[in-house]
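User: quick one, sequence for these tokens?
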């Protein structure tokens, strides 16, 4: 029996007049039988649970036992729920569900309905690395238990290396998760993007934590620079969404100037080339020249290779 689940149920019932056992079972991803056992345990602990019979019935806590809660405003609770729901796709379901239930118990049922009507959070990815969530749990356990981790890592230049690290913390930055730790091969602190990690394996070797500071985890990836693009009207909406409307301004008929955040690596250049003839880099000069070099190299490949004609003979 999970003590966190019991506390979450109590917090919920302190605010709601009544909640059905089927609703609680669905919320905590357990069977109704488990919820009945939880309610019995709460009763034995001295919290008076009452039952409301009927089709629209349920269980609740005796009204005289409840207290008024003024610690958080509705805006505070909304902010907390948005944050918790945003990381639910990475963290374990039960852990987050229990925390969300506690927070929901701090606002009224009517206010909770307003929140759910106004904000919808969909955790289903458009695309993505399906191994990130299980890896996240393995990493979190290794950090708590001070155990070494082994994995394969593909850097920004697609170079794959085998790593063995002392894991220290997980960081969420710009919608991406990163693992920070001490790399035994490099003998230095490093930051690793979770989506580039594969073949993760927790080791039975433990480690003694080192003294760390924020400056020890500076990323080794290239910094983002602002480049100036001249784009076609057809790309305007995308650029506004990606760069912000303040970085997209009119230039001439059906043309727009964009201040575009750019990383000088293979992925960054491939991204720009993907816009084809709808986009031209105006500056800086060295980025423009590198794009020209890559375009010429691509043209050479197509010029040199002769594609055999299909054999039409029967």
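Assistant:
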């Amino acid at each position: 029996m999970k003590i966190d689940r019991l506390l979450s149920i109590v917090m919920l019932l302190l605010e709601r007049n009544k909640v059905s056992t089927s609703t609680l079972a669905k919320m905590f991803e357990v069977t109704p039988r488990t919820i009945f056992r939880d309610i019995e345990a709460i009763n034995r602990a001295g919290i008076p649970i009452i039952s409301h019979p009927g089709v629209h019935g349920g269980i609740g806590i005796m009204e005289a036992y409840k207290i008024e809660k003024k610690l958080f405003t509705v805006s505070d609770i909304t902010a907390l729920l948005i944050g918790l729901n945003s990381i639910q796709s990475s963290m374990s379901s039960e852990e987050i569900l229990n925390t969300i239930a506690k927070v929901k118990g701090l606002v009224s049922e009517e206010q909770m309905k307003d929140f759910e009507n106004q904000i919808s959070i969909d955790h289903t990815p458009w695309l993505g690395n399906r191994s990130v969530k299980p890896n996240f749990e393995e990493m979190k356990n290794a950090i708590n238990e001070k155990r070494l981790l082994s994995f394969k890592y593909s850097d920004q230049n697609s170079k794959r290396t085998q790593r063995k690290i002392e894991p220290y913390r997980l960081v969420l930055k710009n919608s991406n998760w990163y693992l920070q730790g001490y790399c035994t091969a490099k003998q230095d602190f490093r930051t690793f993007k979770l989506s580039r990690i594969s073949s993760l394996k927790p080791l039975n070797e433990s480690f003694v934590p080192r003294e760390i500071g924020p400056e020890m985890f500076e990323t080794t990836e290239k910094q983002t620079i602002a480049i100036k693009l001249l784009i076609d009207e057809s790309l305007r909406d995308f650029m506004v969404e990606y760069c912000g409307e303040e970085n997209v301004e009119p230039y001439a008929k059906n043309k727009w100037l964009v201040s575009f955040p750019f990383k000088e690596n293979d992925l960054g250049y491939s991204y720009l080339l993907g816009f084809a003839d709808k986009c031209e880099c105006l500056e800086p000069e060295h980025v423009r020249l590198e794009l020209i070099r890559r375009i010429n190299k691509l043209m050479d490949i197509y010029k040199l290779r002769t594609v055999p004609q299909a054999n039409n003979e029967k």
